[in-house]
Amino acid sequence: MGQVKSLADLRKIKEDLQGKMSLRENSNNPESLVQIRVAMATCGIASGAKQVMEFFIEEFDKRNIQAVVTQTGCMGYCFAEPTIEVTLPGQAPVVFGYVDTKKADDIIEKYVKNGELVDGIIPVNYETIEKK
Amino acid sequence: MSKYKMHVLVCGGTGCHASESDQLLEDLKTIVTEKGLDSEVQVIATGCFGFCEKGPIVKIMPDNTFYTQVTPADAREIVDEHLIKGRKINRLLYVDPENQEHIADSKHMGFYKKQLRIALRNCGFIDPENIDEYISRDGYEALAKCLTEMTPQQVIDEMKKSGLRGRGGGGFSTGLKWEITSKSVSDVKYVVCNADEGDPGAFMDRSILEGDPHSVIEAMAICGYCIGSSIGLVYIRAEYPLAIDRLKTAIAQAREYGLLGNNVLDTGFSFDLELRYGAGAFVCGEETALIHSMEGLRGEPTVKPPFPSVSGYYGKPTNVNNVETFANVPVIINKGADWFASIGSENSKGTKVFALAGKINNVGLIEVPMGTTLREVIYEIGGGIKDGKKFKAVQTGGPSGGCLTEKHLDSPIDYDNLIAAGSMMGSGGMIVMDEDDCMVSIAKFYLDFTVEESCGKCAPCRIGNKRLYEILDKLTQGKGTREDIDSLRNLSYVIKDTALCGLGQTSPNPVLSTIENFWDEYLEHVDEKKCRSGQCKALLQYIIEPENCVGCTACARNCPVNAISGERKGVHIIDQATCIKCGACLEKCKFNAVFIK
Fold first, then answer.
1. From the list A3, A21, A74, which residue is nearest B123 (CB)?
2. What is the fold, at CATH topology level, of the domain defined by A33-132?
């Protein structure tokens, strides 16, 4: 992408990006993507978040599931690292804590494939600035 | 794709656990299976919902129904009425304390959520290494707005109006600081971000830089525009390699997009950032010491005035703000000063990020509006004290702060209240202590830290703190006297009055606040030579209970100093004069014959 030259430019980029994202989020297409965010701050990485993220990327590929796995910063749930947030198409995001590769496997097999929740759910306990 | 149509989430947090949530979970599962719904409805335990006072909590998805104070006796009704017939059970819904209305949907329970994330708005949400994700969340819009629609003075006025105060602990008005620096006349000025986070147990700034580096970059550019500076420096400790990497990536991306560098957004404004690494000295969090360290000099503070806003980095006007302070700035510009000022308490606006640590269930990073009470933070967000122990104190403000006790639990947290209570906001570390912590040892721990971190420039800090430490050590050894406590107090006041910088002026706070709040414990250490929490090893006595001792000799064989004597199959005795209180006998005894007095 080239240089941003004005506020209007910036807003246009923003709208484009948001459009792309909402397309991803609101699509009713059954093939639309599963999204996984892995909390990758120092605390998460120290508890094994990197291995978990690699596991997800490799296993989605092997098991032929269309998914986007991205890294993010600290979610604040340091007692339950590594933590991940899973968004199934058309559903509210769910945060899982204490995710090792075994739990990750469970999450793919049970939650991603079947919608069956597994242990370690962390309820979101904060408000965002958009709502306030 | 989903096999289950409904999920019943039962809170499995400690608070709810104590009020029979596990029984409720079992009952719900049994009844769901009994009714043949187990292929459609899944019942599962979750982590804490952070609403423990109304626990146990049950949430039903996907309709987001939020039931409070649910007992095992309600399980059948939930299944019969809600799951089967789809009718919400009114009496279990949360009642709005203001208008007595039942609230069915957790999304409309704004007040239920104690946390509000402003500084952490993108943390754990966006990919910190992707500038597009930041832009899609209003990123750099505040900068563009400032550059194209506002004069520097208008931005400063907005900041002043918002009431934002320095989040590094001092609590100085950010807008005012910007204004003072903007009025200093000079060819070159600097914007500095203080990312030298040094309080034990604090990691707010690291998390922000790792999770949302662009918010800091954007705010520094806005500050540069306001004060008339084109160079920003981030002073970050070298112990934060990941934060450094992400910051570097973010700076490179911002340059590529033309959001840093020459002629930003085609407005003629130029601003760029550089990093400076700190070697992890606590005193370098003090702004004058930080500036000296950046100049390549020893990290020692100098007397203020002159303040950095007049004469800072290489003698030029320098505006130093903390990471979290900067992270708030773009939101204030985007959403307006009035919006920001509507959050928080009278003299402390907005939110504060705290790193919850210590004897608390949900260790982690939280952000709450100013004015939230300690009780809400510890019991509702933090999930209460570990292992059901009793709360004793919470330490805020790190080595410069003090301890707050049970009597402070219900006072709202803000800059002024914390100072009134003998502590301070500090950068936001919150260390929770339970009944097993000895307050004299805690004071000693912090003094040990200060002695280690004192730069040694002024005598009160270099020598005084060392003496404080020695007296505290004497108390924990059981050799203290009442006069020692008086000396502790007197010396503390002298250090506070005479030390050169913030580090020394505040270092006696842990001592003073523990003496103030835990006078009984100090007296016990002195008069009775007793430590009620058993932390001061020298004050303990290991004793063998003759009735339980079978004479197996395990303790005597494992005692490293041969302090235990006794015949085989006869009662053993510990010689208190020789005992070094290592606890090996207690550990080895299989008959519960060794105990601590």
1. A74
2. Glutaredoxin (3.40.30)
